[in-house]
Structure formats: structure tokens, C-alpha cells
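Side project, low priority. Logging it here so it doesn't get lost.
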Amino acid sequence: MRIAIFGASGRTGQHLVKQALIQGYEVTALVRTPAKFSLQHPQLTVIHGDIGDAAAVSRAVSGTQAVISVLGPTSNAPDFAVSRGMQHILDAMRQHGVKRLIVSTGAGVGDPADAPRFINRLITWLLKMASKNVYLDMVKTAALVRASDRDWTIVRVPMLTDAPETGQIKTAYVGKGMGMRITRGDMAHFMLKQIEDLTYLRQAPAISN
């Protein structure tokens, strides 16, 4: 199976690519600066481009059976690059008949199943105050995914760490037993599992260690 990964050159994205290749997937990665993406593998195809370029996104999605996005805003500027890019991804998936979509957001992007406690509300409020446009961009991204006709899963995460992968992943909802951190490796493992595991189809679970 060939999958497209968006956000592949980031710290979490590189975990995704490495784990996907180990698991035997063929991977297409859209990378803005290929010279900064050192991974090489016979089953890895790197496409030079940006999510703001609909044609480049379409090339990355073409020939795949699933799409994973770990895109996140790189600044607090009100350009909403991730949500605009997600629209291009969704358009490309429809164009090429690709159904399965797994997307990551921060845990502050809410879900009706959440029961946020005071600390959860405080963290979200602080995020809105400090990085309003980052927050809004990801809220817009999640809304686009939820409104789509794709087979989506939104994976919501708390603080990410670069600690070694633990293999211990808790799935919950905000305020219902969710922890405060997760390693990037564990996050990547969970997201890859969702390609064929439809337990959370059209749901937005929150994961943690």
C-alpha cells in the first residue's frame, strides 16, 4: 500500500516516515525543502512542493490509498496555511478517489465527547491568548475534515516529547482520563495503525502516554 504523508520533514513526520517504511508501506512525502529531508529509501518518493500549491498536493496524493497529515502552523501569522492546505488535500483525495484520511491536531481542538476540566480550559485559553491564529488554523482544519465525505480520523494530542517510544498509548477524551504528554514515536505508531483499523472512523480521540 502507498500512503501520502504531509508534514513529513517535521520531527513527528520523520517518525511517521521511518515507521511506515519499516512496516512495509510505500511512502510519498511532499517536502518544501528536499535538501533538508535526509531520509532515503527505495520505497520513499519525495515530491518537492508546498501545501499551498494544489498541483503539488495532487501529485503527492495520486496513486496512494491513504493520506496522513501531521501539518501544523509554523507561525502565529493569520495566513491559515494549514487549513488552506487541508482543502487542497481533500480536493486531491476526491480527484484521485482516495478515502482514508488521518489528521493530527492539538488536544485543545475540541470534540463533543470531551468533558474538559478547569486545567484543560485554562490551557486552551492560554493557547488562544498566546497563539490565537495557530489555534484558529487548526480549528478550521478539523472543521474541514469533519465536514468532508472522506473516511477520516482526527488524532488529538497533548504536549509532544522527544523521549523514546514507550508502546503505552492511552486513548480517551479531554477530561476523561487523558494524560498530559505523548512521545512523537508513540503518536506516529497510533496514526499509522489507523490506516487499516477503523475503530475511530469519523471520530477524534485524544491520545497520551
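Brief comment: The longest strand covers residues 100-106.
Revisit when time allows.
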